[in-house]
């Protein structure tokens, strides 16, 4: 019994040491297993990276040849009436009659404003009578001069009095004519600043009149584009209303603007019917030169890291090349890009996922379409 008790005491004495040793063993095994697992995980990405590095991105491409098109200069501009004049009173008087309302379309000579004539008609009649009297006096003295009954001085006096009377008559006629303010040319009354009863003095502004029978589309050209444009060239403008109009270039600035370094240009458009309204925005399109260009869909255009617009193509070595977009012509059918090789392989699908200089697997569109057609036939047969 004593022997058993002694053995039990020995076991209890070493119990703590046994437990500690067991814990150390378990921790060591756990740490070793973690290192082994981490090593395996590290090796797996490395292998995956090697696989990814060796793979090429596949893109869909289309090989096409350039077409000869007319490069069009496209700039934003605005429309304006051909002429704008500010009408003013040419004599003093009170407004008696308004002949046109704002916005009215008028012909040359139409009455816009008329002043109260007062005694101006009477002055004109008096001036006319004075001229007739002076003509009779001159004729009488001329007859007497032939008979030596009047001197040369008396004859010259009659001539001077007649000329003075004619001058006064002309002044009276003008003064009466100034009472009526008329349209200087065919156009429209843009604004009027007076009403019936207002008193105006000579030089006071009364109305603004515009020539809207001819519309001007004005814009600014770059130094490069200005060399292709000449006075008399035909061009067109797309208005904000959706209308397109044609006309002739009437002006190209001979000197560039100091601030913008651009050249002003004006397109003259006939608007005899008055259907076009001035003051809106427009896109001026001027034919420039024949160039070789490729027609593409605008959706194929992309941006590089600097934010430049361009297109991605594949060169002969299978590398992606970003080419800046030089738009020669734009229409509802697409855009024509100049500056590309005569025969170009354009990336049509996947251009957003490949970088400039990347080697890719270029799959022609024709092969993709053929594969789709075969699959469709197989499905139809099933």
Strand order of the largest sheet: 2-9-12-11-10-13
CATH class categorisation of the largest domain? Mainly Beta
Low-confidence stretches: 3-8, 34-53
Q: Could you name the CATH topology of the largest domain?
A: OB fold (Dihydrolipoamide Acetyltransferase, E2P)
Oligomer kind: single chain
The H-and-E topology, N to C, reads as HEEEEEHHEEEEHEEEEEEEEEEEH
Question: CATH superfamily name of the largest domain?
Answer: RNA polymerase II/Efflux pump adaptor protein, barrel-sandwich hybrid domain
| Count of separate structural domains | 3
Ends distance: 92 Å
Strand portion: 35-45%
**Structural class of the secondary structure composition?**
alpha+beta
Based on CA inertia axes, which overall geometry fits?
A: elongated
Would you count the extended β strands for me?
Answer: 20
Quickly give the CATH architecture of the largest domain: Beta Barrel
Average of the residue pLDDT scores: 83
